[in-house]
Structures are given as structure tokens and as C-alpha cells.
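// run 5 | inverse folding | seed 20
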């Protein structure tokens, strides 16, 4: 019997300790590698005790992890463990089980700037190992842009469950693994100096006028260039650095912030952006995982299927039309609920084709 399991590193041990797990137990399948924190894996239940006996781990658990304050874990691990525990909290589980399949009522589509094929050149099918750099951009203490510890947990949950949505839709042949590096950047930038969004203004310039004031200093604090060159540099670093699962062939960057943006969530040019308070207002806290998964799919060529979508536009490595677009005039192609239409956790066959899953090579 296979089950999802969280492996948590002890303080002072590196992610490379996970090599012991994968080399000793070849039945263990990595799902998400959390750099400096641990991993979420699919594991035979009867192997959990044996993995827990390996050196370097503070916890190995199929369920809720108790006594977080007593565990010898790095500070960066705490939000992820709290997010994991939500999956076993009866109150939160009930929220997830009873939430509406329709999670997006907004009809304005995400803008259509360049896709994930931006530099550096990468084959952006959602297959094999994908490196993800998460940049949490925090504001000054006491300001509206300050991200609280509970919001850190909300972001971690959005990512954990967002990745899970993608895994549940992916075929086994995709061999999908996410390797994740988290960076937390604290800026002294006064949030009132970033222009507030204006309804209907969604051009590239509108996005840049609101994103660049906080994005560029965040990139610079990580030793990167400003602008999209800095994002490309970061994506290259993510591919070139050492990962326990080997070298990834593709990478993306995600920004979470409370600074102003032109839209609550969008993705292009190898990066996605989620404006945390606005996203919570539009879809609710319990649907941030869906927003995250949806925006990641944009970076792998999946288009929106609502609003002004075009059913004849083609996307992805197989040049497949947007056949599930709500504007499709062909009655022979019935619309079905899909993540890219904001109606479900599930994906239609068209979206799977856009991501490089069907027809699978």
C-alpha cells in the first residue's frame, strides 16, 4: 500500500541526506523535494519505520506531526510542517472536502504575454524534474506588506496542495517531480510607493509599473540582476545547482507578496506572481492551491478556458487547439469542468495536451 509521507530533516543536516532514502529504498518515489526542509514522497507504508531509522531526520510521518516546538528542525521548515498538518486537521479537511468545484468567478482572463519559453531556452512540457524557486517578498515590519507567520503557512499550503493537484492530474509516464527552493526577502520599501492597481489596466506596462518596484530589489538582494534578466539568471541557477534527484531540465520562479500588483495572479516569462491578499479576496483562502496550480500551468503553455479565450488558438508541444474554451461554437466538443476554466481541480484532455501529457510521446 502506497501513501504520501513527509520526511523532515533534522537541524544541521542537508537535503542530500535524502539520497540515503532513495538509494536504500527504490520503491520510494519523490514528489516534492523541499530544499533544506525534507521531502514529500510516495512510500510503501511498511517502509516508514525503516526510513525513520536512517540518520538525519527529525520526523517521518504519514499523518499529522505532533510537538513541532520540540522538533530539532530549521526555522524555514516550520510553515511547511504546519501546512502539512492542515491536511489532517478535521476542520480544514472538511473545508477542502466541501468547497465548491467552481473556484473562480472572475471573467477577466490572465494577460497573454510570452510564455514559459522565455530565456533560458527550455523545453517546457510539464514532465520529469522541474526546479521551482519560490521568492516570498516581505514588507517592512508593521506595514500592510508585512507577511505574518500564519500567512507563511498559508503560502506553504498553497504550494503543497497546488503541486498535489498537478500530480493527481499527471500520468505516471510524466515522471513529474518538483524540487523547490524557498527564498524569503524582506524589503524596506514603503508599500504606499507602489501604485495601486486600476481596474481594466492589464497591459505589460501596467504590470511592470507595479511589479518592478518590489521585484527588482528582491532579485538584487538575491545577487541577481533586475528585471527579466534576473529571473532568467535565477532559472539558470536553479538548473545548474545540485539537487538530490539529479539535474532538472526546466525551471520556474514564483513570487508571493502583499505589495501591489496589476492583477491578483498571473504568469509569463518563466515566473508566476500571486498577490496574496487580493487572491484571498477573489477566490478565498481555501482555493489558493488552485490559483497556484493554475498559474504554474500557464508557464507550461496551458491557456485560460474562460473569458475571451480563443478555441482555435494552439498551444503546447503538440500544437493543440484550446478545445475546452467556453467560447467554442462547436457543439460536437462539449465543455467539461477544468482547472484552466476555474471550475475544478481536474484537467480536461485539452489542457493535458497543452502541458505535454496527451498525446504522450
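// decoded
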Amino acid at each position: 500500500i502506497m501513501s504520501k509521507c513527509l520526511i523532515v530533516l533534522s537541524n544541521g543536516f542537508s537535503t542530500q541526506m535524502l539520497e540515503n532514502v532513495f538509494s536504500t529504498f527504490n520503491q520510494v518515489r519523490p514528489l516534492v523535494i523541499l530544499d533544506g526542509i525534507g521531502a514529500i514522497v510516495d512510500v510503501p507504508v511498511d517502509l516508514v519505520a525503516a526510513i525513520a531509522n536512517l540518520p538525519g531526520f527529525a520526523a517521518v510521518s504519514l499523518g499529522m506531526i505532533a510537538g513541532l516546538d520540540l522538533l530539532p528542525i530549521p526555522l524555514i521548515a516550520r510553515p511547511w510542517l504546519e501546512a502539512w498538518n492542515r491536511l489532517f486537521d478535521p476542520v480544514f479537511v472538511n473545508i477542502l472536502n466541501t468547497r465548491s468545484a467552481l473556484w473562480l468567478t472572475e471573467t477577466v482572463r490572465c494577460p497573454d504575454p510570452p510564455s514559459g519559453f522565455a530565456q533560458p531556452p527550455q523545453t517546457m512540457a510539464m514532465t520529469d524534474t522541474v526546479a521551482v524557486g519560490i521568492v516570498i517578498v516581505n514588507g517592512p515590519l508593521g506595514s500592510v506588506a508585512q507577511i505574518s507567520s500564519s500567512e507563511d503557512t498559508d503560502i506553504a499550503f498553497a504550494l503543497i496542495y497546488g503541486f498535489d493537484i498537478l500530480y493527481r492530474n499527471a500520468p505516471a509516464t510524466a515522471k513529474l517531480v518538483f524540487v523547490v527552493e524557498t527564498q524569503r526577502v524582506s524589503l524596506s520599501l514603503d508599500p504606499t510607493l507602489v501604485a495601486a492597481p486600476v481596474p481594466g489596466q492589464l497591459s505589460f506596462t501596467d504590470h511592470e509599473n507595479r511589479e518592478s518596484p518590489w521585484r527588482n530589489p528582491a532579485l538584487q538582494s538575491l545577487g541577481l540582476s533586475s528585471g527579466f534578466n534576473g529571473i532568467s539568471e535565477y532559472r539558470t541557477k536553479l538548473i545548474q545547482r545540485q539537487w538530490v534527484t539529479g539535474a532538472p531540465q526546466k525551471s520556474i520562479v514564483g513570487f508571493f507578496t502583499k505589495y501591489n500588483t496589476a492583477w491578483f495572479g498571473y504568469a509569463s516569462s518563466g515566473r508566476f506572481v500571486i498577490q496574496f491578499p487580493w487572491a484571498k479576496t477573489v477566490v478565498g483562502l481555501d482555493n489558493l492551491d488552485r490559483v497556484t496550480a493554475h498559474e504554474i500551468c500557464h508557464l507550461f503553455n496551458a491557456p485560460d478556458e474562460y473569458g475571451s479565450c480563443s478555441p482555435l488558438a494552439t498551444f503546447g508541444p503538440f500544437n493543440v487547439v484550446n478545445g475546452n474554451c467556453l467560447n467554442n461554437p462547436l457543439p460536437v466538443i462539449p465543455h467539461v469542468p477544468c482547472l484552466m476554466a476555474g471550475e475544478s481541480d481536474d484537467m480536461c484532455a485539452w489542457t493535458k495536451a497543452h502541458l505535454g501529457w496527451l498525446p504522450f510521446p
